[in-house]
Specification:
Blueprint: H1 2-19, E1 28-30, E2 37-39, E3 50-58, E4 61-71, E5 77-82, E6 88-94, E7 99-104, H2 111-125, E8 128-130, E9 133-136, E10 140-147, E11 150-157, E12 163-169, E13 174-182, E14 188-195, E15 200-206
Antiparallel strand pairs: 1-9, 2-8, 3-4, 3-15, 4-5, 5-6, 6-7, 9-10, 10-11, 11-12, 12-13, 13-14, 14-15
């Protein structure tokens, strides 16, 4: 009986330690300056309208439409979602510290939906990240940036300096992932937004001129 008690105790301790394990990246930690900032090249040109075909999978339901965003000043982007036929679904202005809804159809006017989209697109359109830690492995430079109660890990290719992905985590696990596919590193032709805690995936595929 005592042996079983000890075994259960060891299992409980192991489970507790595993569940409390902090999120870690695969790479060697590098020295950085206190003022290092990494710039996101995507969606940074105020002279361009960024237009994407959008596909959303949410809890087994598929939605499609058009996503348009434009940088309207140094800190704010305007974002518009429409149907494939051009009917407006959602129109908002967003920055690091603000989220202003100009229009939303009734079906999308839900706090959970708007809060989720706000978090997703604040990360997607964020133009700069203050670097707190930096890592290196065979493929990437990885920059860790504090984001309140969460952390952003920005993966930059060592081959061509392109932004490849951003992983947002809590202290212990991944919450959100943004994958980028870019030909020249200035415009992302394909973007995939993956949630880990809810069944929501958003894919953006750039319209070719």
């Amino acid at each position: 009986m005592q042996k079983w008690t000890i075994r259960l105790l060891l299992i409980s301790i192991s489970f507790f330690l595993f569940s409390c394990k902090t999120y870690q990246v695969s790479g060697e930690k590098l020295e950085i300056s206190n003022s290092k900032v990494i710039l996101n090249p995507y969606f940074s040109n105020e002279n361009l309208d960024y237009v994407y075909k959008t596909h959303i999978e949410v809890y087994g339901n598929d939605l499609s439409g058009i996503f348009v965003t434009k940088k309207i000043n140094d800190s704010i982007h305007r974002v518009v979602f429409t149907t494939d036929f051009g009917n407006k679904l959602l129109d908002f202005e967003i920055s690091n510290n603000s989220f202003k809804v100009n229009y939303v159809v009734e079906d999308l006017d839900r706090k959970l939906i708007l809060n989720t989209l706000e978090k997703d697109f604040k990360l997607l359109l964020k133009q700069s990240f203050v670097v707190d830690e930096m890592f290196e492995n065979e493929e990437y430079y990885i920059y860790k940036s504090n984001a309140g109660k969460r952390f952003n890990y920005i993966y930059q290719s060592k081959t061509d300096d392109q932004f490849i992905k951003i992983i947002q985590t809590s202290k212990r696990k991944e919450k959100l992932r943004l994958n980028f596919d870019s030909k020249e590193g200035k415009i992302a032709e394909n973007i995939l937004i993956l949630h880990q805690n809810i069944k929501l995936t958003i894919s953006l595929n750039k319209f070719e001129n």
